Amino acid sequence: MSEYGTPKVLGAVMIVKNEEKRLGGILSDIRNVMDEICIVDTGSSDGTIALAESFGARIERFPWCNDFSAARNHSLACAKSDYLLWLDADDRIDEGSVKALLKLKTRLRPEKDRAYTLKILGRSKDMPDTLSCQTRIIPNREGVLFEGRVHEQILPSLKRTGVTIEPVDITIMHTGYHDPGTRRAKARRNLDILADELRAGKDTASQHFFMAMACIGLEDYGQCLEHLHKARQKRTDEDWHHFSYTISTECLLKLGRTDEALLEISEGIGLFGKSPLLHYYLGLVYSKTGRFTEAAEVFKKAATLPQRIDSYPTPPDLKNAILIQYG
Q1: 3-30: pLDDT as tens digits
Q2: Is 4 among the domain residues?
Q3: Do 121 and 200 fall into the same domain?
Q4: What is the rounded distance in angstroms from the CA atom of residue 237 to the CA atom of residue 178?
Q5: Contact predicate 60/78, CB 8 Å
Q6: HSE of 43, CA atoms in CB hemisphere, 13 A
């Protein structure tokens, strides 16, 4: 990291609580890339703070108030670097992506008018890998702030401030929670916060979408479908629209409503005709209903379509997943 008084180009910002067991991994990955590491602790009772300090991180304390954006925005306010990479304690960055970060660092513009989208490889011990993209490197400037108490979003403020967003070939591995009980507790916490916001008047398309995501985490498939319906009624240009058809189709299949699942995924394909992911789901629906010849044809078509990486997770090797089904 940079010495005191030298220019700070790229810093890392994090919010943590009781992450002693996981935090050391990501700090080891980034310590030779970042000009500063600013960690906001929201109430740790283990050795998290001592561990962070051993890596040279600056620690700020922020009382937890059921608001992820408030905590993340405090981390932005504390950082001094021109650009910031926001991270979670359960992220990891391999050697190849560390080298790519160093290369990117040399071309970060002093105008602070760019943000960068990185690939996120989701990896958990008991779930299949997923691949998505997320705007993780942002300019440290006035007006660039996170929004939303949970599922905090940075894109709206980047759009308002006229920041150009560019994709870069850098991957962060996000390991997440490994046991179903912890994931369920997280979904319950998120739903409670989102419901509070809804009661306070935040009746938006994305609010209902995120409530739908919490509901599927709680295996409440009926409520998930209700929130997805409301989200689509209110939507404008939200980036989750394509992905929402995989969630609704999955819910209908879980509920045994296979005819509706077929209609649902067909509607999605009508809107996103070149999506290999939605064709893959159509093949799954056909397979569930015993229509194996039609399933094979759809899987065959899906394998020819170019893969797209969205803000929401898909299998990183979708073609291979398709071929296994088509096999």
Answers
A1: 555 578 999 999 999 999 999 999 999 9
A2: no
A3: no
A4: 33
A5: yes
A6: 5
